[in-house]
Amino acid sequence: MTKLIQLSDVAKRYGSQTALSGLNMQVPAGAVYGLLGQNGAGKSTCLRLIMGLLRADSGQIQILGQNVEQLSADTRQQIGYSSESMRFVPWLTVAQALNYTRSFYTHWDSDYVNSWLQKLELNPRARVFSLSRGNRQKLGLIMAIGHRPKVLILDEPAGGLDPIARRVFLESMIDLLHESGTTIVISSHQMQDLERICDHVGLINNGRMQAEGEMELFKSQTRRLRLMQSQALPELGLSVIHHLPGQQSSEWVVNNWSPELEQRLRQAVAAEYLQIDALSLEEIFVYHARQGVTV
Amino acid sequence: MKSVSARLYNDLNRNTVVLTSAVLIGFYLLLYVFQWLVVTSRPEMVSWSFSWEYILNQLPFQVLTLLQMALFSLCLPWLIVSVHGEWLYSRSASVPDLQRRLLNNYLRWWGTGALLLLSWITVVQYVHYSSANLLSWPVAAFSLIISLGSGLVLATHGQVSRWQVVGLVATAAWFFIGLDWQYGDLPAGLWLGLAASLIWLAALLLKALRLKEYQGVFAAFGEGPKMPANRWLKALPQWVSSTQLQSGSGSVLQRLGLLFQPGMGLYSYLLLVVVGLFAMLGFRHLLGLTEMARYHADTPLILSVLFTAVMVIFNPRYLMRHFEEYYFSLPIARWKVYLSQWGLQGLVVLAHLPILYLTLSTVYGVSLQPLQMILLAAFAWLGGEVLVGLTLAILVAGKLDFLLGCYIALVSHSPWALLFWGAVLAYRCWDLLRFCQQDMTQSLQGRWTRLIKHYALPALLLFGAGVVSSRHLPLAYAVGWSQSINRENAASRYYLALQAVWLSISDDQHLSAQWGHDFEDDSYYFDQLAKQSLLIRKLLQQPQDTETVLKMAQLQLGMEFIDELYSPPYLYDRLDGSHQTEQPIKTNQVDMVLAPWMAFVTADQEPDLQISIAAQMAWLKGDQTQALAIAQTLKNPAHDPVTALWQIYANIHRFDYAAAIQGWEQLAAQTELAHQDYQAWINLLTVQNQWSKALTLAQSGPAQASFKKKDSFRIPFFRAGACDALLKAPAALQQGYAQELTLCQTQSEGQPELRSAYPADRLEWLIRRGRFAEALKEARTASKYHDGTHAWLLARAGQSQDAHSLAQWVFKTDQNGLNGQGRRYFFHSYYDNRSKQRAAETLFAQAPSLQHARWWLLYAASAETVLQAAKVLSVAEQSSLRQEATALQSLEQAYYGELAILPQVRDLHLAGILTEFAADSQQPELKQAGQTLSKLLQALAAKT
Lengths: 295, 944
Known about the structure:
The complex is a heterodimer. Chain A has helices at about 45-50, 75, 95-100, 110-120, 135-145, 165-180, 190-195, 215-220, 260-270, 280-295, and strands spanning about 5-15, 15-30, 30-35, 60-65, 65, 80-85, 150-155, 185, 200-205, 210-215, 225-230, 240-245, 250-255, 275-280. By secondary structure, chain A is of the alpha/beta class. In chain A, helix 6 (about 165-180) links the parallel strand 7 (about 150-155) and strand 8 (about 185). The longest helix of chain A is centred in the middle third of the chain and has 18 residues, at about 165-180. The radius of gyration of chain A is 22 Å and the shape is elongated. The two termini of chain A are about 30 Å apart. Chain B has a two-stranded antiparallel ribbon. At the A-B interface, strand 6 and helix 3 of A face helix 5, helix 12 and helix 16 of B.
């Protein structure tokens, strides 16, 4: 599958503070890529590097087949970006701000924008400075998709949205994905949202990509194993990211789970002593984050 | 909802407090500036005697100025609101509500100020003041309309109103036509001005009404307006949609213009006001429609400082960086974003150029050509915020002269001036490069760190360029060439050189004002400034054109030195205080400006003029002896009056009074001076001749050390009663006697004007007219230097005892003082001398003695008095020669105790004087007495 976004061994420092260190990331075409990570893990830095808002200290960043530092104007026309921290010219109305943004893009779908204004119940005559945080985010999202970009990068896009608006937006985004094949990179703390819409996921911890892959594969490779009565975990080549010993039972979380391993484990451990659980994305994130902390 | 309202309310309160404080600070600031203006523009109030009548006479004008300043200061809070808008917006404060509140406050302030101004103007129309012509209706209208219009326009940034356009047109019409158009009793400009004011006022009220309605809708929707409620709301700014922006607006220019627009909305009106106001002022000045621009040159100065401060604090390019995440995410190259923001900033910076032009031309008399203005504009655009910041820093530091020097040097054709250009160009490229490569940053600390890092290098670069280029700047070529400043470091040299340039332009105004010239009416002064400006322009184009250099030096020196050369009494006075403080500056001026200019001139080029200039330069530096020595090398008859004057004084210095008189006659012939007019000059020289012959003899012995050569030429027309000759003299000769002329004019205008004259002159004026009773009254309040005259007047009034005591006191205190100071072993000043002579005369009249006669002679100020004293003295000497001679020796020892060569000095001096006068005397007994005394004293000197 073609990789629309590729980061290779990217590092970024803010003075003495290291934000990213040897980060690798690959976003396939047409994917909805969820970027997970704790606060300060480097998600926003990563997305800003992809957008060219920041410059990497080292490493390679490519988007749509071009180096991000030499993006042509045409290529930039195919990228949309919205961020929770983005500020708009406050004295404009919503309509004026959209019109202003529209003038920078060669292909702007006004009907599409108007439909989104209605869906998200955003008053086009309201001044930007008078908008609430959530409404400003709605405006940012509409600005980012008005030109129907090929790549859409969203940094915490739904942080200020109420649950209803978030659901509408995310479900519609899936429609968008289906309709036009837009590749979306999204960072969020809303794991349930990401689990619902993403087909790829990357987990950043301490400036490094700790885990990355297709959502289903990612989830299918992670299992929580619980062995009763102090049974030891057999040496089967399992990659343990978390271990919790106990008197009655011990717990392991592995991230290279496969049917073959499951079969071998069941052969090695009696069924009454073994419990295998699939994990939600949020649980996986937590275990990975804990691993990052302990490491 | 409640929390939002509460936050809104808190924001409003906080902002109102901030802005109210700004109003007060603005008022205090401008009151302070006003005080400064009063002092600097009315120096006669300080240097001349304090007169309540004078102050009362000036009061209407002062009050008018105060009111004008108060009205202008009302613009200040609006400036803050205007440029602070983003801050308010970003916090979701209710700007309309804030504006509504401020609108009310503004109207209250403005209304009060306007009412006071109009009332005051009305009142003074019915009160006769000699200066009442300064108060005019058009000026009042100017203040009202500009303050109101500026306030309104600035308050409504981003909102177009047709009423404002009408107001602007009316203002412009009034400005160009109304002020000078008289119709009936009142100028038509008053009506036009009032009409324009009414239009502005109507616009302001409509604005208030609209805001009120808008506020009502705003409140109804709670968090923010959602739908317009009426047609006024529909008229709210739609500037973006009105441009009919289309997707992907094509060309680079269109893209740049697009990026430009949000900032434009905020600053366009500010720009409009700045450019409009000063362009109008500038055009008026250029067209010569009125002298108002000249008279009100302080206003652009103040406003320029205010606007500059605002521009620096709220730099548009950096304001837009709040939205850099948004802009950088758009499909447009960063360099385009940079260019657009720089363009916006450049327009604001360029708005200062009319201010600069007006200030240079009206205040400093320097007129820049269009090409030079374009060069300045380009430089300002390149330098941008760095340049504006430095300008403000220099203004705040009060170094306007430095700034002026920089501007003048910048537009020169010197290759070294390119260093300045290179510096700003390099900065701009560097700034662009950084902008394109830098990271977006959102933290306050990050922004500040980046700001400091960003500006540290260009500031150093510009400063370094200034220091290096200072060695070769065309108007400061002097730097590094002058021996007197070689010990200074580079920065000091740079500053001193530019200061010297500034002095060469401004010092005349200072001197002229210092001596009480009303330079606003002095066409001569402005003619000189015009000539100077022309020469400066020529020098800027051809810095090494020797002819221009000579003319410049000649003009410069002619304006500079004549006042001092021809006013010895003042010269003596200035030795005490002010002159000492000015001397280093004048020395620098000579060393750093005039001397380098002269270095371009070859020896064979007008040698006599060069000698004349060299003599004047030496004179300026305080070395009169050197000046006269140089002047003595003049050989050919001079063609210009100044060189001719130097020839005359060289002859005086050589005590060749016959040649001096001949020189005067030639000069008079050249200038077609009538015989009867210059006869008084000749008479004065004759007096000098007689007096100096005695001095010549005295200087032939060891007495010369106690004499200064500059004592030998004093031509005090006023004191010598020769004003008629001076007043009738042609302008060419009068120019050299500016201060004497002022005194003589004062005398001719009658007694009332004497109240503002110098106290000593007033006293002498009364004595000369035989009004001794009034003179005595005047003398009672005079300084201690007039105690002798006071005693003399007391004696005339019959108060012998008091007169005697006071006269004795004069010499008693004088000895003490002289022994302590050491420099006053010759005459302190004309009046001091005259006062002591009168004290001695008083003492002699009441108790004749050789000592009293000796004093009398010592301080005699004219040949007539010398003869009289010498006669008395000779008689006294005959009676008891040896004893009195011994007494005289003792007296001299006491008097000149600090000098080792005495008492011989005085003895020989006296002998010389008496011998000379005895030889000239037609009276046998006087001739005999003089010869006898002379022989005796010479013998006594030889013995000791």
